[in-house]
Write a structure and sequence with these properties.
By secondary structure, the protein is mainly β. The chain is built from no helices and eleven strands. Strands 2, 4, 5, 6, 9, 10 and 11 form a seven-stranded mixed β-sheet that branches. Strands 1-3-8-7 form a four-stranded antiparallel β-sheet, with no helix packed on it.
């Protein structure tokens, strides 16, 4: 499985970006897909998740600002990030999970988001 993340960049505080994660196979084959981020000197943390059934969940600091969505026909998951803050600066990673007897997790290469104040 390959996950190709894109869409990061340098943006001013208050700005927006749309991150994309293109999968090499049907995203409905995964139990869930998610976006994580890892800021400088920090651990990798969950930002948003979307399940196969379409349920979504967000970490508290991004609720109301970030939106995870998907296009099944394009095998792509998106993360719309609005009202960006300097503390959102991080490398954003796409994740996919499938359960076939055991849990398998796949990661994309990351896309960097830098928010200037």
């Amino acid at each position: 499985v390959q996950l190709q993340a894109s869409g990061g960049g340098l943006v001013q505080a208050g700005g927006s970006l749309r991150l994309s994660c293109a999968a090499s196979r049907s995203i409905l084959s995964f139990s869930s897909m998610a976006w994580y981020r890892q800021g400088p000197g920090n651990q990798r943390d969950l930002v948003a998740v979307i399940t196969r059934s379409g349920n979504t969940n967000y970490t508290g600091s991004v609720k109301g600002r970030f939106t995870i969505s998907r296009d099944n026909a394009k095998n792509t998951v998106y993360l719309q990030v609005n009202s960006l803050k300097p503390e959102d600066t991080a490398v954003y990673y796409c994740n996919a999970v499938e359960v076939i007897g055991v849990l398998h997790a796949y990661w994309g290469q990351g896309t960097e988001v830098t928010v200037s104040s």
